[in-house]
Write a structure and sequence with these properties.
Distance between the termini: 30 Å
Strand content: under 5%
Largest sheet: none
Number of strands: 0
Helix content: over 70%
Radius of gyration: 15 Å
Number of helices: 2
Length: 50
């Protein structure tokens, strides 16, 4: 999932720059990078039973 999000981030920036919406492409790229980082984060203590 993380790899897909980072590929989408890398692809959307030049696409939006081509159609003259550079800021939108950068913001969308950052959004996909944040999603990729969120899904790659290990979830510590989720299945621990105290």
């Amino acid at each position: 999932m993380m790899r897909v999000m980072f590929i989408l981030a890398a692809l959307c920036i030049p696409f939006f720059a081509y159609i003259d919406k550079g800021a939108t492409g950068i913001l969308l790229g950052l959004f996909f990078m944040i999603l990729g980082a969120f899904f790659s984060k290990p979830r510590f203590g989720r299945d621990r039973k105290n």
